[in-house]
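--- STAGE predict ---
source: upstream dedup step, 1 unique chain passed
mode: sequence only
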Amino acid sequence: MSFTAKDVAELRAMTGAGMMDCKNALKETDGNMDEAVNYLRQKGIAKAAKKAGNVAAEGVVTSASGSNAAVLVEINTQTDFAAKNEDFIAFVKQVADTALANKTATIEALLAADLGGKSVADTQTELTAKIGEKIDVRRVALVEASGTVASYVHPVGSKIGVLVGLSTDAADKAADVAMHVAAASPAPEFITRDEIPADVIAKEKEIESQKDDLAGKPAEIVEKIVTGRVDKLLAERVLLEQPFVKDPGTKVSAFLGGASVEACVRFNLGEGIEKKEEDYAAEVAAAMKV
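--- STAGE serialize ---
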């Protein structure tokens, strides 16, 4: 029986074992998933297997910066308590430094990267077993710029991180824009209006045109109102058109002068992760039956 990269990923999710360990296990068991799990357990590699299915939505967002390049990394834990563990904190720094040194742009490359003789993925699995909570190096972003790159990680909880690359060497401006992106509400989705896909604009127009307050109005009036409303909505989502947080009377584009934003990335810790709702009453009831 053969196996695929998807099988390797599935086995990793089931056991928390490293990529190469999972490949070897599937090879040794001729692609049989159940036997591969047992193989890893027998080898003592799947110590963290029971943690692999747990939801890790806490943790930190961190960054590492060079002169004109920087990385943003999100590493998750199950609780805030584990995120304060000294071993976890050291691991976070090592992973970020490794990502920057290798200019890593994908999570696959980061997990496979060397970290003191072991891969990041294997070190992650060992740390999961040691701490007793699932550790998940979830995502990484690399930003390089012709001028300068600024990083900003909100100091309270390290839950929001931003990278901004500018065409100018003005580090102070880059830092201010990065802080703006972290603080802006709504967070910018696009750098310029030109980046907005046509289908997004069409959808916004469709939504606005069907609102009750436009019912019965002449078509030309509806078109004019819809255009104005959509323009305002889109401006809120475009970085350069947002009011600058330090001076709301000035747009970000005006603050930058002639400089252009070449790249912008924002991580909000845990976004997109469906957190498990705990039923503590049910847990107590179940415990009492034991």
